[in-house]
Structure formats: structure tokens, C-alpha cells
């Protein structure tokens, strides 16, 4: 029997998928339990999210984690990621961080529940809701899993929704550089300290506008570079790299290649250039965040040596 404490942990579910010749047919699914309601459970599997009604569950149980990172390691990486994507409006709720950036991106407009909020969990969620209500925005909570599993369970009881699962992936920089040797025939990657108008236009095309807070999120980091590749006069590929945290993480974000220039290796090209810069800046490993359903990007990063460190869901109040 699964309990709410199991949310955020890996489980295996044997589910009923049909009946043939009077015999019940079963199928097994392995994944991270991201939701447990009165009517169903939801798993984040390697193939995507799987929603299983309780009536179809034959049995379910937790499985031992495969070399899970420690809570301290997850917290340190999440705080380095926060430094790499800094919201201009931040407030502490005990050890939690509340962040707002004119609504630009979920990461910069969600609470990060790492550490102790210095109050009971229900009261902490109430405080999060009030803080965002004062800013005229719905409350969002970024729940790293399994670290914030109890928070996710509390949000389940309140009917909060969840965005698609995000993979937080890491790789040693030596692995990334070795996996992406210089590509012949590609235009050079330029690394600059400030984003150009062209860079911003391409980076924000999918993010809906560019409010004043967005420039702060992109540029308010001590060590960063913006990668750009021009093919003639056209900007065809970009990425952003930062070095943050006591452990000196290279954070990779906004890796974009224009549609007409894809499948030429430009994504690997810009990542390799930033990995080389990060290594020179004192970083030893890189991290990135990618939606599990973005299979093309996941495949690209897997080929560069990235593996999933942990995952997170962005939860939103109803």
C-alpha cells in the first residue's frame, strides 16, 4: 500500500491491462511517484507520465534508489541553479526561497523549498500563497524530488497542478569536452559578456516577451557568457553559461538552434564552447535542466555525457 510519504520516490507498479481467455493481463511500470490522489497515481517514467487508476493497480511498492544523491548534494545544486537564474525579487522563508521576476519563467517565479521553513509545513505553504498573492500572481512551488517529496504531498491535498517533469542533469566537464570535439565546417562560436538584441530575440521567442526582470535573470551573475553562432548575417545558434556555487558548477541554459539550421551539430558546438570556457573559469562539472518530454534535447545531452541527478516538478495553486 502506497502512502503520501512515497511521493518523490521510485516505485514499481504492476497494473491490470486487460483480460484474455479468462486470464488477467498485467504490465509493470517503473518510475518516480509524482502524484497520489484518492482515485489514481501518476508515475514519471522513462517514456513519460503514466496515470494509473487505483482500480487498475494490482500491487505497487517502493524500490531502492539507484545511487540517489544526498539531500545535501541536491540542496547545493539547487542553490547553485538559483544563483545561475537569479530572480530580482527574492525573500527567505526560513531555509526556503521565494522568487518573483515579473512572471518571466517558472524557475524565477516559484518558491524553492529546500531547508527548514521554520514553521509547520501547512503554515509554510500558506505563507507562500500570501507572498505571491501580495504580488498579484498565483503561487508556484518548484519541488525537487525526492528532496521535496513531503511538500509535494501537502500540495496534492490542496489540489495543486503540476507542470511536466524536469530532469536536472549533470556531467563532468572533461566528459562534455571529450564528447564534442571541434566540428569541421561549422561557423565559430563567439562568447560574449552581454547578450545582443538578436540573442535576446531568439532566446525569448518561446518564453513570451521580455519584461525588465528578464534582463536581470539573464545577466545578474558574476561569471557568465552568452554563446552565439552566426551563419553569414543570421544568428543560428545560442546558449548561455554561468559559473556559480561553492562547488563551481557550470550552468547551461537556453540552448537554441533555429529550425532551418538543425541537425548540423550546432547544439553540441555551443555546449562544447561553453564547457571549455567553464573549465577555464574553474568549474569541474556542468548542470542543466530539461523537460523529460523534450526527447530531442534529452538525446543531445545524453550524447554529451549528461545523466539525471534528480528531477523536479513546478506546482501551481489552483
Structure report:
- With 318 residues, the chain is α+β, with helices and mostly antiparallel strands.
- It folds into three domains: 59 residues, SH3 type barrels (Roll); 88 residues, no CATH class; 148 residues, Gcn5-related N-acetyltransferase (GNAT) (Aminopeptidase).
- It contains eight helices and 16 strands.
- Strands 8, 9, 10, 11, 12, 13, 14, 15 and 16 form a nine-stranded mixed β-sheet that branches. It has a five-stranded antiparallel β-sheet with strand order 4-3-2-1-5.
- The longest helix has 15 residues.
- The mean pLDDT is 92.
CATH topology of the largest domain: Aminopeptidase
Sum up the overall morphology in one term.
globular
Secondary structure: helix percent: 25-40%
Number of strands: 16
Determine the strand fraction and express it as a percent band.
35-45%
Number of helices: 8
**Helix-strand makeup class:** alpha+beta
For the record, the count of structural domains works out to 3
Mind telling me the CATH superfamily name of the largest domain? Gcn5-related N-acetyltransferase (GNAT)
Q: What distinguishing features does this structure have?
A:
318 residues, alpha+beta, SH3 type barrels, Aminopeptidase, 5-stranded antiparallel beta sheet, globular, Acyl_CoA_acyltransferase, Rv0428c-like_C, GNAT family N-acetyltransferase, GNAT_dom
Amino acid at each position: 500500500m502506497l502512502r503520501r510519504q512515497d511521493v518523490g520516490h521510485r516505485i514499481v507498479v504492476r497494473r491490470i491491462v486487460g483480460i484474455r481467455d479468462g486470464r488477467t493481463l498485467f504490465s509493470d511500470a517503473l518510475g518516480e511517484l509524482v502524484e497520489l490522489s484518492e482515485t489514481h497515481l501518476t508515475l514519471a517514467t522513462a517514456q513519460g507520465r503514466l496515470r494509473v487508476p487505483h482500480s487498475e493497480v494490482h500491487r505497487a511498492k517502493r524500490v531502492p534508489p539507484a545511487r540517489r544523491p544526498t539531500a545535501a548534494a541536491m540542496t547545493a545544486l539547487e542553490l547553485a541553479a538559483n544563483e545561475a537564474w537569479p530572480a530580482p525579487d527574492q525573500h527567505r522563508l526560513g531555509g526556503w526561497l521565494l522568487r518573483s521576476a515579473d512572471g518571466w519563467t517558472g524557475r524565477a517565479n516559484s518558491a524553492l523549498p529546500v531547508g527548514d521553513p521554520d514553521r509547520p509545513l501547512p503554515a509554510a505553504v500558506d505563507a507562500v500563497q500570501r507572498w505571491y498573492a501580495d504580488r498579484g500572481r498565483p503561487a508556484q512551488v518548484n519541488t525537487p524530488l525526492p528532496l521535496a517529496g513531503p511538500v509535494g504531498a501537502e500540495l496534492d491535498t490542496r489540489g495543486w497542478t503540476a507542470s511536466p517533469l524536469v530532469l536536472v542533469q549533470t556531467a563532468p566537464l572533461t566528459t562534455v569536452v571529450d564528447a564534442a570535439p571541434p566540428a569541421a565546417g561549422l561557423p565559430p562560436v563567439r562568447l560574449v559578456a552581454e547578450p545582443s538584441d538578436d540573442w535576446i530575440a531568439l532566446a525569448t521567442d518561446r518564453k513570451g516577451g521580455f519584461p525588465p526582470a528578464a534582463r536581470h535573470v539573464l545577466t545578474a551573475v558574476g561569471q557568465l557568457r552568452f554563446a552565439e553562432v552566426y551563419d553569414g548575417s543570421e544568428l543560428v545558434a545560442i546558449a548561455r553559461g554561468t559559473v556559480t556555487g561553492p562547488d563551481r558548477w557550470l550552468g547551461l541554459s537556453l540552448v537554441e538552434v533555429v529550425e532551418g539550421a538543425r541537425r548540423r551539430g550546432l547544439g553540441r558546438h555551443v555546449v562544447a564552447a561553453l564547457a571549455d570556457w567553464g573549465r577555464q573559469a574553474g568549474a569541474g562539472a556542468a548542470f542543466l535542466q530539461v523537460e523529460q518530454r523534450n526527447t530531442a534535447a534529452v538525446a543531445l545531452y545524453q550524447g554529451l555525457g549528461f545523466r539525471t541527478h534528480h528531477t523536479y516538478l513546478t506546482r501551481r495553486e489552483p
